[in-house]
Design brief:
Length: about 350
């Protein structure tokens, strides 16, 4: 049995073929990062237009790479939310057209559910129940997962998602978009203890809040400008030695800010997950979403697992960012449960799990 997964929830056009043993037969992703980089973030109108251009070529490539035809599919699973409504509309419309024209069962998948079940695409999937931390550009949430369709939200972000904070801080530092990989790379050469950013732990709940951290980074950047001036850089004279000195100071400070900012984000994510494990009495944790590709977060999560005897399940980096294989994986659970969608399926920008 084969399922075609389709995801156009944000700025990546993705299609994948997965079999009923959760083996990935093909997984194609067309990124739009180059299109949106010049604007410092995703432009929804441009994203939806690009999806229209790429949806058929990506699906066609996924089928060819898998060596199957549309007639070989048991179902088409499509992400119908949450996400950018214009982008979601492209994927849903295309999936409905395939379903109608070829009489293939249609399955609607929640994007967050897809992230949770991305961990089932590995050779060692988790047993139920488990705690799931989904952390990306649009979401930062903790769930208790007792089985397919049985999800209990334990905490969520009250403002910025972790990935959104990465992108905004990257823009403040003049590092471009997407911010996550850039900051992660710079942090390797920075001092994570250089700046003591306050950790928004909010111990009274398992919710998250990162907007204050973004403000703290902005203040630190302003302080850095004054520090450069105090070090003897006169922007009006612009002597070569002054410019070089200022450049060195700025470059190192940026690395230190990146490292300290990332340490704060990771500390909060790991600590909150540890609290959820203790509260729920479940010592299995899955980590998924785009920020789960972050090297420091992956390292720290495995470290806390070893220290506390918690089983940690993290997909490969390629399955952390938006992809259609995870949509197909969740789709198989819907297929087995007989959960099918009709031609009246509509995308939803807001769709809680």
């Amino acid at each position: 049995m084969f399922i075609l997964g389709i995801d156009t929830s944000c700025d990546d056009t993705a299609a994948a073929v997965v079999d009923n043993e959760f083996n990935i037969i093909s997984n194609i992703v067309s990124s739009q990062s180059d299109i949106h980089a010049k604007y410092g973030g995703i432009v929804p109108e441009l994203a939806s237009r690009r999806h229209i251009e790429m949806i058929w070529p990506v699906v066609d490539e996924a089928l060819k790479a898998a060596g199957i035809r549309l007639e070989d599919l048991s179902a088409v699973a499509v992400c119908h939310g949450p996400g950018l409504i214009g982008s979601l509309l492209v994927g849903c419309s295309f999936a409905k057209a395939l379903s109608f024209s070829k009489n293939i069962p249609l399955i609607a998948v929640n994007h967050l559910e897809g992230h949770i079940f991305s961990c089932f695409l590995s050779t060692h999937p988790p047993d139920f129940p488990f705690i799931s931390l989904v952390v990306s550009g649009g979401h930062t949430s903790l769930y208790r997962v007792d089985g397919f369709g049985s999800y209990k939200e334990l905490g969520r972000t009250r403002d910025d998602a972790a990935g959104e904070a990465y992108d905004k801080v990257s823009k403040l530092l003049g590092l471009g978009y997407p911010g996550g990989p850039v900051i992660d790379g710079l942090a390797e050469d920075g001092n994570p203890e250089a700046i003591d950013f306050s950790r928004p732990y909010m111990p009274e709940s398992l919710d998250f809040s990162f907007s204050g951290l973004k403000t703290a980074v902005r203040s630190k950047i302003q302080d850095t400008r004054y520090m450069i001036h105090d070090e003897g850089y006169n922007p009006e004279v612009k002597k070569s030695e002054d410019v070089h000195r200022a450049s060195c100071i700025v470059h190192q400070v940026i690395k230190d800010i990146a490292a300290s900012f990332q340490a704060c984000i990771v500390d909060v994510l790991v600590r909150k997950t540890e609290w959820a494990v203790g509260k729920e009495g479940v010592k299995r944790v899955t980590l998924s979403g785009g920020v789960a590709a972050n090297g420091e977060l992956r390292r720290r999560m495995k470290e806390i697992g070893n220290e506390k005897g918690i089983e940690i399940f993290i997909p490969s980096v390629s399955l952390c960012t938006d992809n259609a294989a995870m949509i197909a994986a969740a789709g198989f659970h819907h297929l087995r449960a007989g959960n099918f969608a009709g031609m009246d399926l509509n995308p939803k920008a807001y769709l809680p799990l």
